[in-house]
């Protein structure tokens, strides 16, 4: 960092519904005058935002993007702020966020009950809106899970001891919001029940001496008897009908 030039206030990430308006804020100190320039990145493409040359960047969130601010001093030294993420939730239930929303966490996705085999991965997920973006902390049976601090809980190889009741707390400087509590069941793979298989073989033979529409077609009774004898040798139960 150039001597005398420093970021004094970093912008903050946010998690908002589509169409929500907010401002990202960056402040710096150094040899005046200072020049600000904001950049955004979407799907690995970083671009300069035309006209975004003030310490505050007003935006109307339409898609999830990353933002960063560059500050130049009078000597053309430059320093960059931290990258921040504005996460946009495209599908939000009616009534969210509430009117007069101050940016406190509002849960928009709750985890669901899971049944997982021992050794298989366990995944629970939640999501909350908030300005600034909330941080997450997962709990099992009321006990804090030290390394589960993201909105997605992931256990690569579940154990029976991972069973229990899970919930997550989303919090920021304005407050906190808890997910619904959900039960997770970890157990051995259930053995498939034996299928009911039929072991008998039955053949139905119909022999006609007279045909109404095919007078020249004959199926003598003796042919049925011969076929019956062959099928019985193959362990068939045979039912023979005549006319």
UniProtKB/TrEMBL annotation:
Specify the protein name.
MALT1 protein
Q: Which residues form the Caspase family p20 domain?
A: 199-243
- Asked whether the keyword Flavoprotein is assigned, the reply is no
Identify the keywords attached in UniProt to this record, alphabetized. Answer: Disulfide bond, Immunoglobulin domain
Instruction: Report whether Secreted shows up as a keyword of the record.
Output: no
Q: Which GO terms describe its biological process?
A: proteolysis
Q: Which domain of life is it from?
A: Eukaryota
Q: Which residues form the Ig-like domain?
A: 2-81, 105-185
Tell me the SUPFAM superfamilies matching this sequence: Caspase-like, Immunoglobulin
Q: What's one GO MF term for it?
A: cysteine-type endopeptidase activity
């Amino acid at each position: 960092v150039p001597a005398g030039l420093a970021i004094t206030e970093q912008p903050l990430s946010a998690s908002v519904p589509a169409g929500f308006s907010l401002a990202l804020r960056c402040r710096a100190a150094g040899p005046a005058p200072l020049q600000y320039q904001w950049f955004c990145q979407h799907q690995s493409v970083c671009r300069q935002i035309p006209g975004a040359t003030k310490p505050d960047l007003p935006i109307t969130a339409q898609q999830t993007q990353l933002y960063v601010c560059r500050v130049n001093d009078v000597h053309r030294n430059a320093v960059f702020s931290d990258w921040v993420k504005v996460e946009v939730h495209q599908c939000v239930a009616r009534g969210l966020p509430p009117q007069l929303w101050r940016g406190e966490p509002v849960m928009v996705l709750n985890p669901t009950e899971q049944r997982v085999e021992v050794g298989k991965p366990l995944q629970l997920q939640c999501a909350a809106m908030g300005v600034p973006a909330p941080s997450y902390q997962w709990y099992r049976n009321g006990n804090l899970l030290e390394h589960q601090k993201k909105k997605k809980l992931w256990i690569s190889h579940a154990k029976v001891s991972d069973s229990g009741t899970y919930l997550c707390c989303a919090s920021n400087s304005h407050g906190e919001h808890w997910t619904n509590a959900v039960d997770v069941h970890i157990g051995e793979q259930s053995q498939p029940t034996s299928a009911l298989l039929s072991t008998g073989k039955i053949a139905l033979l119909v022999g006609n001496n007279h045909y109404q529409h095919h007078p020249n077609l004959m199926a003598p009774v003796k042919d049925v008897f011969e076929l019956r004898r062959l099928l019985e040798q193959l362990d068939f139960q045979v039912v023979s009908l005549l006319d």
